[in-house]
Amino acid sequence: MRSKTQDPNHTTLSGERLLDDYVISHSDAEPEYLYRLWRATNVHMLHGRMASGRLQGRLLKMLVQMAQPRNIIEVGTFSGYSALCMAEGLTDGGMLYTFEINDEQEPFTRKWIEESPWSDRITFIIGDACTEAAKVGVQFDMAFLDGDKRTYVETYEALLPLMSPGAFILADNTLWDGHVIDPDYDRDHQTQGIRRFNDYIAADDRVSRVILPLRDGLTIIRKKRN
Hints:
Strand order of the largest sheet: 3-2-1-4-5-7-6
Largest sheet: 7 strands, mixed
Number of helices: 8
Shape: globular
Helix content: 25-40%
Strand content: 15-25%
Number of strands: 7
């Protein structure tokens, strides 16, 4: 029987943390290099929690291994953690093109990418993927969308013609800390962008989709073959 003085919200949060710890402890460990990058990201960069982290990183690697894409595009490099996880899963000859629009992050991120064990599988580009991705001159088999939440729909529309039939698009943060269903965030522009994107994808008959309640929400989208 629960004590009358026990806070049920505290109990729930404690249970969630224990469950998170359980999930992590029963999933693959991240390579030591990625652990050091995650630590450095949280120490040296604002909003360090934006880095994908161990659980999502292991999922990204596994999805790449399952889909075996030849070319991947990432929108929103941040510190490079997710790019390195996906590059880790690529087969020989595979390439990941990652775009970051904030050039102030370049010195930190480029160093970590270029000194990584997977640097030969990554092309790091400073610029707007919406206008620059087509210039790469390849067809992409997978995309990881993790840029400006306010323009997710526009980014998606810019990328879709560059994706091969059957390609996967992974969209991060699509539950946005639960704000997508919280009326207190109705005027928040990033929440509005995520809601608009979720509604847009749900109605798009060119693709199939499913939202996973992992971390901050991850939508897996597959472009139909016809």
